[in-house]
Amino acid sequence: MGKIEELTLLQAECGACRRCGIGGQMVEGKFLSNVFSNMNCTAQYMVVGQNPGREETERKEPFVGISGRMFDQLMEEVLGLKRSDFYISNCVRCYTPGNRKPTIDEVDHCQDFLDREVKILKPRLILSLGGPSFEQLTGMHGIMKHHGTPTFSPRHKMFVFPLLHPSPLNLNDPAKLELFVADLVKLDEFIKKGLS
């Protein structure tokens, strides 16, 4: 079975998931909360965000709201990489009421999906956006301490490159925008050096 077939089965399992209270809820009475990934199984780089927002639930694709557009623009400007270069997913696959930060239990309930995705994809590098995804991928805490530093994940046996989440809350702050761009420059150098 190829990657796309394996991911399609995992996507169906995710869509049917009701392990916690946010699984299967309707957003604005119209859109199912469960959002899996962009299914770009040929990408070398995997991006793991936090959880889908309202726009993501409507379009059934992660990271297509304002944060995703900011990320796309900066990745292309700084690294010359396009959205099509990334497999994009989240550490929590469902919309959280009021788009609040996911709870520890909600993150834990989705761990299996992320573990299996990484195993199927075997990406060259994983980019974690924000604290929850960094913690889920590495078991480490403190995104402000670790951002911009390649971190080996014992769980996945590969490097994770932690970035601040490119939310308007962060990127509208000039200091945090400067940090984010500086981290992208470090990421570019890390990739060019062969991820070592």
Write a concise keyword list for the protein shown above.
196 residues; five-stranded mixed beta sheet; 8 helices; globular
Task: Report on this structure.
This protein is an alpha/beta fold. The chain is built from 8 helices and 7 strands; from the N terminus they run H-E-E-E-H-H-E-H-E-H-H-E-E-H-H. Strands 4-3-5-7-6 form a 5-stranded mixed β-sheet, with helices on both faces. Strands 1-2 form a two-stranded antiparallel ribbon. Strand 6 (about 150-155) and strand 7 form a beta hairpin. Helix 1 packs antiparallel against helix 4 and helix 3 crosses helix 8 (about 175-190). The mean pLDDT is about 95.
Uncertain regions spanning at least 5 consecutive residues: none
Oligomer: single chain
Q: Based on Cα principal axes, name the global outline.
A: globular
CATH architecture: 3-Layer(aba) Sandwich
User: Major sheet, described briefly?
Assistant: 5 strands, mixed
CATH secondary-structure class: Alpha Beta
Q: What's the CATH H-level superfamily name?
A: Uracil-DNA glycosylase-like domain
What string, H for helix and E for strand, traces the elements in order? Answer: HEEEHHEHEHHEEHH
What is the CATH fold-level name? Answer: Uracil-DNA Glycosylase, subunit E
- Biggest sheet: strands side by side, in what order? 4-3-5-7-6
**Whole-number total of structural domains:** 1
